[in-house]
Amino acid sequence: MGRYRRLLCAAALGIAVGACDSTAPPPPLDGRIDGAVHAEGEPLSGVLLQLESSTAATTRSTVSRADGTFGFDGLDEGDYAVRAAGLPDRVLPEALEAQASLSRQQPSRRVELAARLRRDASIVVEVMAEGVGLPGLEVAVSGPESATRITNELGRAEFTGLVRGRFEVAVRGFD
After folding, report:
1. What DSSP assignment string belongs to the chain?
2. Are 124 and 158 in contact (CB under 8 A)?
3. Pairwise CA distance, residues 156 & 171, whole Å
4. Which of 18, 83, 99, 104 is the most buried (most CB within 10 A)?
5. Exposure of 157 by Cβ count < 10 A (0-12 exposed, 13-18 middle, 19+ buried)?
6. Whether 139 contacts 151, CB under 8 Å
């Protein structure tokens, strides 16, 4: 009886030790990629963001919030690309992409997607009195950006390379 009890204890001990040696797969990472999309500091809302993984079979999409931020969660370890699509018309149609790698050591990452605004708008102001151009006057435009020019000998001031948008014009310097 003692012999069987020792064999039974040894077998139970072997099972317990054997169970400790088995390698169970680690739980999924539950990683996160956060970011923002903007054009020259201006947040871009409503931009479609696509996430693709080259190492994990993951493809997802989301839309940027009013402040330009976005996020993807529940991600596993791997290498990811975030791409912006559906940019507003005032933004240059350039490829916006960021790379991020997630691991157990770095389960979350932040990416920034920076676009450039189109600068194809122009404003031409002519300041005249009785059909004659008035030189030397200050003309200021304000709106999405601000600029100042002095009218030339023909009373003309030109503003080129402006971003698209609504502007106000003011003329100063009348005697």
Report:
1. -HHHHHHHHHHHHHHHHHHHHS-PPPPP--EEEEEEEEETTEE--S-EEEEEESSS--EEEEE--TTSEEEEEEEPSEEEEEEEES--TTB----EEEEEEE-SS--EEEEEEEE-B---EEEEEE-EETTEE-TT-EEEEESSS-EEEE--TTSEEEEEEEPSS--EEEEE---
2. yes
3. 11
4. 83
5. buried
6. yes
d(CA 125, CA 139): 8
Q: Is the pTM of this model over 0.85?
A: no
The tokens for 123 are 């404003």
Q: In whole angstroms, give the CA distance from residue 141 to residue 146.
A: 5
Which residue in 152, 166, 86 sits closest to 121, CA to CA?
A: 166
Distance CA 116, CA 40 (A): 6
Q: What distance in Å separates the CA atoms of residue 170 and residue 164, rounded to the nearest whole number?
A: 18
The tens digit of pLDDT for each residue in 27-44 reads 778 899 999 999 998 999
